[in-house]
Amino acid sequence: MYFLMKRTFNLLDKVPITKGWTFAQLMIFNHFHKNHQILYDEKKHKDAIAVYNFDMMEKKEKETFLDVIRLYVKDRSLQRGQADFIKYALRYMKEFGVHKDLEVYKALLDVFPKGVHIPTNIYQIMVYHYPKQQDVALLLLRQMEENNVMPDYELQEMILNIFGERSYPIQKLYRMAYWMPKFSRLNPWPLPEPTPKDPQVLAKYAIAKISSIDVRARITVYKTKDVLDAVDDTWIISSISKWQQTLLAVQPTNKPLVIEGPFMIWVGDQRIDYFVLKGDPIKREVIPDTTDDVSNLKIPFWQSLHTKIPVTIHEQDDGVYYAMCATGTSSKDSLLSWIRCLEKTNPTLKSIPVVFKFKSLTNDPSYLEDKKANDKEELEDTKILKE
After folding, report:
1. What DSSP letter does each residue of 272-285 carry, written as one string?
2. Residue 136 banded pLDDT, cuts 50, 70, 90
3. Residues 6+ positions from 210 with CB-CB distance below 8 Å
């Protein structure tokens, strides 16, 4: 059966598509046309790609990436492997820092010849005309979508000139052009483009994102060099609100506070570690309502809210969150400097012991052999001695 189908395919490959083809012939041709292992030999064009190796470039920048594309387009002897070259180049876009640059995506798409891949009749549309080239174009558009790069009218004209109106890439672009503008401004914590690389700037965005649940939260930048006897010379991004200061003022001095972390938060494609200062839940005392004010009617399910300190979002089941921070080194000395800085505006901290509770992820080979979770949490407690 295999040899019969292969022989039929060889005969079909020599005869151009005409209107006299039967439906069975078209289906056989469509099957083999989509089979990349039979139609395309990867070894045949690997030398063409190896000529322009992105790994050999010393400077990983936009102009170097574009120069490689220009050299490939200029060399006419390598024009048969455009799809492989584009697919190969897509892997290195992030390494060169051009994965969010629309101009580079246009330069890659411009490698395809114009008018060759456009279907001219209904049969070519039905058999998925030039599947490898269309798949690579879809891969390029999908990578644009993952990196929030919105297409424009110039990119639309390029796809129309390369694949025509009856192709999957142009349908993908139409969907992107419709949906991406609708979701581009929905992020409540927007980031500038391009995303900054400075860890201190990213830490400000991270702490602002976490503390945005309380509109009264205030973000302060501290320097450890301003703290007496500090070892680390770094920065501290701290967040605390008026409600948290009120809760901290009534914290019992005989119960220690805990600094937990590091926890992880993503700002764009960058990871930031942060720490929280928390304590035990507060035991509340209900205030008896003795006034005749009609605004304070005695309603049973409201009595739990009539307390000396109002219930806030900072009080959770596992404790009360008093403050949070991110430091440049994430070390114990920088966190100790953070507590010293908070003592200036919260004098109660001077008489409250503070305990470190660090989380560290370690890889245990026995977990890998047993096919279990390879992340193991270890807790380390170190008490800060108060002078």
Report:
1. EEEEEEEEPPPPP-
2. very high
3. 239, 265, 274, 324
Q: What is the reported pTM?
A: 0.66
Q: Which residue has the higher pLDDT, 375 or 170?
A: 170
Taking a C-beta distance cutoff of 8 angstroms, is the pair 280, 319 a contact? yes
**Could you count the other beta carbons within 10 Å of the beta carbon of residue 286?**
11
Are the C-beta atoms of 205 and 284 separated by less than 8 Å? no
Least confident of 95-99, 185-189, 380-384: 380-384
CA-nearest of 386, 378, 275, 271 to 332 is 275
Distance CA 246, CA 248 (A): 5
C-alpha 85/C-alpha 133 separation (Å) is 11
Give the whole-angstrom CA distance, residue 294 versus residue 291: 9
Distance CA 173, CA 152 (A): 9
Q: List phi, psi (to 5°) of 10.
A: -65, -40
The Cα–Cα gap between 187 and 207 comes to 16
Mapped onto helix, strand or coil, the DSSP state of residue 203 is helix
What is the distance between the alpha carbons of residues 110 and 89, in angstroms, rounded to a whole number? Answer: 13
The alpha-carbon radius of gyration of the chain (Å, integer) is: 32
Structure tokens at 244: 């948290």
Q: How many whole angstroms separate alpha carbon 322 and alpha carbon 306?
A: 22
**Where would I find the beta strands (DSSP E) of 19-89?**
none
Across 9-32, average pLDDT: 47
